[in-house]
Amino acid sequence: LSDSLNIGIAGLGTVGVGVVKLLTEQQALLRDKCGRPLNIAAVSARSRNKDRGVDLGAYRWHDDPLALADDPGVDLVVELIGGEDGVAKALVERALAAGKDVVTANKALLAHHGTALAEIAEGNDVSLNYEAAVAGGIPIVKALREGLAGNPISRVYGILNGTCNYILTTMRETGRDFGDVLAEAQRLGYAEADPAFDIDGVDAAHKLAILTSLAFGCPVDFGHVHVEGVRDVSALDIEYAEELGYRIKLLAMASHTEHGIEQRVHPCMVDADTPIAHVDGVFNAVVAEGAYVGQTVFEGQGAGAGPTASAVVADLIDVACGRRAAPFGVSVTRFKRPDPAAMAAHQGAYYLRFMVQDRPGVLAELAGVLRDEEVSIESLLQRSRSADDPVPVVMITHETREDCMIRAVRAIGGLDAVLGQPTLIRIEHL
Amino acid sequence: LSDSLNIGIAGLGTVGVGVVKLLTEQQALLRDKCGRPLNIAAVSARSRNKDRGVDLGAYRWHDDPLALADDPGVDLVVELIGGEDGVAKALVERALAAGKDVVTANKALLAHHGTALAEIAEGNDVSLNYEAAVAGGIPIVKALREGLAGNPISRVYGILNGTCNYILTTMRETGRDFGDVLAEAQRLGYAEADPAFDIDGVDAAHKLAILTSLAFGCPVDFGHVHVEGVRDVSALDIEYAEELGYRIKLLAMASHTEHGIEQRVHPCMVDADTPIAHVDGVFNAVVAEGAYVGQTVFEGQGAGAGPTASAVVADLIDVACGRRAAPFGVSVTRFKRPDPAAMAAHQGAYYLRFMVQDRPGVLAELAGVLRDEEVSIESLLQRSRSADDPVPVVMITHETREDCMIRAVRAIGGLDAVLGQPTLIRIEHL
Q: I need a surface site. Which of A77, A92, B305, B329 has the fewest CB within 10 A?
């Protein structure tokens, strides 16, 4: 292992440039850690002449990223192109098949094709490392794959999308509305011009699907993640949450239930005194619960050039030091095949808010519908506003089955006295 | 790697039995993770006939733990005897020299002899893994050694002793005194019969010395850790801390300063709204600050059979999977040799409490001493009590050099109007 590890980097956006910078700025440190140099041999990106603030002159240039997989001077390919299919997938497959190690930050790719890619990596005796794909700089992939590997994991959950967490944090701190705060986040660069992937929960769901496979040793199953985003979280509900002792967070959670593996991403009310309630702004956090270790919490920056480069380079160091793990901790040949749990079978408490006309009998109507679905109410909040305005009725339920709850809310939404869409937010006692 | 990894375990106390239980209960899981069985081949402990609640009948018994190092049927020795010298050290040295991998939970041993043992391990091409030695089940050794390895680390700190944290948490929650809470902790099994190692800060200092070496790639230097324990923390100071917006924690901190590497363990006032302020009871937490990753936080149970066994077994899995790292992340041959920073040169803010006679001129005397040492006061709290009782005067200083502060406090302690020992607690804005 005394020769340099020759690296080919595909994709020179924020993260790619961050990786180039870290590798050049920390050459001496990395040589000390690895006992050999990490050498950028070749790069590929869309435009050769764009000024990226780093000197690429010393690296071989490939217009076609796939050429990195064929370049005999490249030992390892870093895939930072992104996207679940297309050239990113083709490049990873081709590099692995050519016997090259691969490091990627591509959560969409792994969420959709993780199992198949792991199979190719294992079949070719090479590494497929992706620390940067989940929770940025937090070394949670390594923690689940290695550090907690002696534990059957019962549950893993966390705040996996910094954009949503920034928006929810700012809404709470300022009392402003979602659209307003989103627009500001876009101006500040915390949200993309097209924010759908983040705010609709898809990005968090990609990451969760990867964590689930790592935690439970089963195939990546993005198709069975229940996904809801944060578009419908209102300033009013954040205010009520505060009053009731909760914080609203976009939580991603995978757990072993009696019905199988439950994977879900949606806004949650969490008790204000749990650690996760205090993870604010662009920070991410992951909680893993193991049979022996108990509860462990990992927190840090979930995005950005520096944290992501830190994770990519940690993966490179492992390869340079000759350390390899099966991509998902156990070989795909030994994967368990647990059933997915239907969201309809989910059990939990719920926060409900209905805007109703302030007239006699309305509460009896609501209560009747809930009784018919066997939903039992733990507490109820109703304050009258000015005479003719609709009045918010807020309820917290006891543990209830999701399908009963959904039917009840639909029925209530159809009542004449109920105006607009009812709001339902799940409560999570962590 | 298809044969079993044959393990010899020395020491069958709480942790040793915890490891035996995990290895037997999770055989199938571990075989899946490693691709081969983890097999307990031999054990050694003081008394063969003691009932430990696990069946040891299938394992070879050695009265002399050193025999594990010579046993040709043992590939790897787990050292759970404890103690910085004596048989634990002899066993680890002999096993490494015999080409066997070693896993240990022994922080005292590593704090005193870590560099020398790492040298032997590296010279014999074997692993010396010690995840369980620092922060129990939290995989912080792996995080610093591998997960954050691309970062120059500027600072690492945390709550590393569960006993002290339990005592401080309970004192705050109940308003009770130190001695009272310690006695209760001993009854509950959270503190040892001889609690000195924990409450005097030595245990936390051992762990810090190890973290320092991992973070900065330098020899383990326990001798330069400044250590103070929690015996002198009073209910009154905890009350004042609360009032001033702080929590008192026993913090262990290593940082790069302009004077060199500063390592210190002592009670600290930390802002009540930092994550570390909310790490309560027997939980541990470690914060690492890297140049690229920024701030990362790791939290979990720092002691107990389950969490410690989880860490020991993670180390075993690494060996079984053929993953090896230099014990301190970089080879001892590439260690940096930074100067230790003298505590006298430490810069920080301080909380001071003096019990004074309530008579004219006292405050002028105190203020005069502080002025002479160029200590500047940020805020001052004085409330009169009943007529003849001594009155507490509480001060928060601006940033001050430690040696000036110590001289000033000694001088003030010598004033006639000042009764008893002044209290000094460092303030840490994290």
A: B305
